[in-house]
From TrEMBL:
Domain B12-binding N-terminal: 1-85
SUPFAM superfamilies in UniProt: Cobalamin (vitamin B12)-binding domain, Methionine synthase domain
GO biological process: homocysteine metabolic process; tetrahydrofolate metabolic process
Pfam family of the protein (one): B12-binding
Domain B12-binding residues, every copy: 85-216
Protein name: Putative cobalamin binding protein
Keyword Metal-binding: yes
């Protein structure tokens, strides 16, 4: 079904996108619903880029608009200052600099009081292992948007195995190209390519019940 906000985002119409976001907040839509609609719009931007209808400058524009959407939404995202649950390490895999999706997930987890160590982008497999060791994290979230970088995620899982740490860490892969096949190839435990599924997975791992105080 065509959605006005999704279309405005796909058309890179900044003014209309932000206006519709404000309207949806007032109408009672959740932040997660709004983010997801915008993400689908940005997905169309990616398709138009693949078809050569959009250029790199349009990808950059979509980044700017999405950041603007997050600035509008942030005051409406409920926060919980009590630090809770196990440590989580997150980063974008080596060779990949996309971080908007990762940052949204980190923002939502931190808002719910979880301790997230953000390693940033273009993170080498060895650095993920080092960070898990340093922070005693039991959840490792790895973001990937560039397909050819997927093999480096397998390397992270193999290194965890070699270090005898595999059983202690749940590995979650996320990003536009991930699917069941990527999960199986990399040896990850879970995968998500939208915000709703990402939060469902974290809830499941953290044992957070829907409707509880620590829910995202
Ligand atoms: C915006 C954008 C950019 C921005 C990135 C800005 C930034 N700070 O991230 C800029 C302009 C810098 C950029 C650069 C490039 N990009 Co780009 N980019 C995109 C675009 C349009 C949107 C990505 C995005 O932010 N989506 C919105 C967020 C919210 O969605 P998301 O990332 O999927 O994240 C959600 C879920 O996946 C999930 N999630 C994400 N991470 C994680 C992690 C965990 C642990 C979990 C649980 C969940 C999770 O939750 C998020 C919330 O909903 C995509 C198209 C697409 N379909 O994704 C192309 C795309 C990813 N880019 C692409 C390309 C080719 C490039 C460039 C190589 C272009 C170039 N010629 O230079 C460079 C990459 C350089 C590099 N080495 O990384 C291709 C990749 C093709 C491929 N399959 O390999 C795509 C698919 C476009 C296309 N169709 O061709 N890009």
């Amino acid at each position: 079904m065509e959605d006005e906000l999704q279309i405005a985002m796909a058309d890179l119409d900044e003014e209309k996108t932000l206006l519709l976001v404000e309207e949806r907040i007032k109408a009672g839509y959740s932040s997660v619903e709004i983010i997801e609609t915008c993400r689908r719009g940005v997905e169309i931007v990616g398709e138009k880029y693949s078809d050569s209808h959009y250029y790199l400058s349009d990808l950059i524009m979509s980044e700017e608009i999405l950041k603007g959407v997050m600035r509008v939404l942030e005051p409406y995202i409920p926060t919980n200052d009590t630090v809770q649950g196990p440590s989580i390490v997150m980063g974008t895999i080596e060779g990949d600099i996309h971080d908007l999706g990762k940052n949204i997930i980190i923002y939502l987890l931190r808002s719910s009081g979880y301790k997230v160590h953000d390693l940033g982008v273009d993170v080498k497999p060895e650095r993920f292992i080092q960070a898990v060791n340093e922070t005693n994290a039991s959840i490792l979230g790895i973001s990937v948007l560039i397909s050819f970088c997927v093999s480096s995620i397998k390397r992270v899982v193999d290194l965890l195995d070699e270090a005898g740490m595999r059983d202690k860490v749940k590995v979650v892969v996320g990003g536009y190209p991930v699917n069941q096949e990527v999960k199986e190839f990399t040896g990850a435990d879970f995968y998500a390519n939208d915000v709703t599924e990402a939060l469902r997975i974290y809830r499941e791992i953290l044992g957070v019940e829907e409707g509880s105080v620590s829910e995202f």
